[in-house]
Amino acid sequence: MPEDAEASTAAASPGGLGGWTGGAFEPAGATQLVAEAVTYGYPGHAVLDAVDLVVSAGDRVGVVGENGAGKTTLLRVLAGSLQPQAGRVRRVGTVAVVDQELTVEPGATVGTFVAEALAGVRAVSDELESAISTFDHERGDLGRLTAAVARYEHLAGWDADRRVDEALTRFGAPRDPGLLLDELSVGERYRVRLACRIGERADVLLLDEPTNHLDAAGIDYLTARLRDWPGAIVIVTHDRRLLDDVMTAILDLDPSMDGRPALYGATRYSDYRFLKSQMLRRWRSRYRAERKRALALADRLDSTYENLSDEWRPPKGSQTHRRATRARGHVKAADRLIQKLEAEAVQVPAPPLALTFPDLPSLPPEPRPGPLLEVRAPRVGARLDLPGVRIEVPACGRLLVTGPNGSGKSTLLAALAGTLELDRGVRSVAPGVRLGVLAQEGPTEHATAAAQRAYVAGPPEELTGFEAYARHALTLLEAGVLDPTRLVPVAGQGLLTEDDLDRPLRELSVGQRRRFDLACAVLAAPHVLILDEPTNHLSVGLVDELTAALRVTSAAVVVATHDRRMRADLSDWPELTLG
Hints:
Strand content: 15-25%
Helix content: 25-40%
Strand order of the largest sheet: 7-8-9-5-10-11
Number of helices: 17
């Protein structure tokens, strides 16, 4: 629970209860977090460039942008775990952070997280007890006692344990304090940590993709807590409904034409998308015009220098001094033309990538009657049991799988993909049908159990994106689930730039690696796409593009998702609700 040593000067703004630093309360609505010209980059890769941000108590800022734009880096700089290479960050009060990724210390338990989160509350409670027990009613320091009471009331210290326990319950997280964290799933560990931070009630709350591992009930509870939060909040999120329901402003880290991030006061996601779409339309139009002008300039220069070398030259042996004079004149005229055209040119950077979803096939080369993929009465341990249930995926079919955490959605999709063996039931795939699979977490899953076993460790982190993609293609080819004539190139999908694909995978952000996994899912031009929580870690813009692509693709699609906006967008699909 880090606390910045340098307090900022309070600045009035609406809402909030304020925070405290050094024992003194800040006014309601005081500025609690300031980033001034923050710059940060990795070797050979600039991320943040002179970013400014002011967040006051009661402000809830949503941070969006393409994967790799620096959202997680900005959050870490704001938290103090990364020091900016230029600029500075000022904080007021306590800071609580929930990162996307979590490193678990050996032996750490659920109780370890709870104790860490409530350490500040315990310290304030102990300080109050000390102030009360040692207070001299005749000569005591009334100021110290008043400050201790104020801090305790500000943190609602009497209610801290109940808040944490309630959050654990509402998020569907384990509550047993003795449970080892490294024995829990990724989602369970995340929910435990999120619950502890929500119960902590810090002055500044920094969250990175908080809805990734929550079901609908958990998201509703989180939304209510965030809307009532007394301090300042900065949230990196792809959840479009969360942007609508919680945020008071949206910071888009994607550069605009002038290379700067933009802060949108519009708090409705649809308003933000409209404004950004208009900006991108103007940007792409100007970029096309600039490229056309650049080609015209190159043609003019070629023509000018050809004339300079051929057409004006008098015969050899006659008036050589005149030849030199005329040469200098033509060179100067050509240079003046270059300067004029370059001065008129508008330097417009290349606009961001847009998803180019591949044209996927609907049927194998020799189709047969019946579904492409089918599972009957599947049971996998205690995780999934659907007696009497028959799940068919026909050509061009659609299926939306919903249900709370623990209901077996991921298990069902893995059973459909063939990456989990059934304890009971039958799975069948029509001859020649290729599957494309995007798992919720971890290494990219593949179309068959044989391919999964051959690739179980995932691509080595030292491989570049191009190298890992090629290795994945070879693995699928050896497993007999790839037609070499239908391979989908990774660079043409609009998911990652060629520069990103030339970098080692370990250097990519979580969102960029998720984009790479999505590219791997369509590499083999599958007839059936099986996508588990496909919106996790992706940018909001890509989620919109992906949703539109899934609605029109010729391939059959099975999607399991908690994303409320995606469920609404796919509400006309057949739905299977588990749990």
